[in-house]
Predict the structure of Spore coat protein D.
Amino acid sequence: MRKRGKVTCSCGLCKDKKVETEYSPVKKIVKTTTNNRTIRRVHPTHIENIEKNIIRVENYYPVTESNVSETIVEEYNCGSDLNNPCCELIKRYKK
């Protein structure tokens, strides 16, 4: 849309003439300034290395077996009568 306005001439050439001034719509110029910004996002990771030592302790309980012969000697005093003995223990010992 154009605006019109009446302006009088100030130079001597157009004194008796009517001068009109027309205005065009405003031309819009957009100037864009771009600012670059860097954001560092650090995502740290920690790795823990574990050395596992397993010690196996084995317990053994060997069993041995032996046979022992034991002889016990008992001495009796049985008197003089073989048909009717009356025996008394005199002593006992291991041989």
